[in-house]
Amino acid sequence: MLGIFGSILFVIAMILLVIGLKKYHFRSVLLVAIIYSLLPNALIFIYQETFATGIYAVSYDQMGRCEFDTIDEDLKIMEGECQLELKNHSNKPVTFELEFLDSYIAKENRSESLMNVAGPFAITIEGNQKKLIDLKETLDVSTIPNHIHSGYSNNVHIKIIDNKASRILSGL
């Protein structure tokens, strides 16, 4: 709802900009559209580098990868391995729990969220450090319906949780 309201306000602002300018309509609209599209990423980066603390200072490189393999013929035990890189932009260490979320597109079969059978995982990242997280777990999936049998996925979606807050960090 907030996104729709913001989009409507943006369109109204662009119309008023064109009406208010006597000259350089196209250049002004193009410049505002470019600035508007680049501004959110820049503001998030500036916020994380300067003011953010706790899980809000953690960024995700969006290049996570998970791989799953069935290791018994009854399809009840799987081996899952996930790798992702997180960076703490604050000066203080951050500790949080990590959960895996399935892709928004493929909801019929569980894949990345199978790692939560062995989780949630407690992660600590020191101040101003990058950390490559490599989790390799043996998973009992006998009670989980509609799960994959083997495969891999890129651009993993994750959720980080501390005592008071949570954030969802998505792949591309």
Written account of the structure:
With 172 residues, this protein is an alpha+beta fold. The protein has 2 domains: 2-51, no CATH class; 55-169, Immunoglobulin-like (Sandwich), CATH 2.60.40. The protein contains 2 helices and 9 strands, in the order ααβββββββββ. It has helices spanning 2-20, 25-50, and strands at residues 58-60, 65-70, 77-88, 94-101, 121-125, 130-140, 151-154, 157-161, 166-169. The protein is elongated. The model has no long low-confidence stretch (mean pLDDT 83).
Offer a concise description of the structure.
The chain has two helices and nine strands, in the order H-H-E-E-E-E-E-E-E-E-E. It is α+β, with helices and mostly antiparallel strands and 172 residues long. It is elongated and about 75 Å long.
Give the topology.
Layout: H1 2-20, H2 25-50, E1 58-60, E2 65-70, E3 77-88, E4 94-101, E5 121-125, E6 130-140, E7 151-154, E8 157-161, E9 166-169
Antiparallel strand pairs: 1-3, 2-3, 2-7, 3-6, 4-5, 4-8, 8-9
List keywords for this structure.
Immunoglobulin-like, alpha+beta, 4-stranded antiparallel beta sheet, 5-stranded antiparallel beta sheet, 172 residues, 2 domains
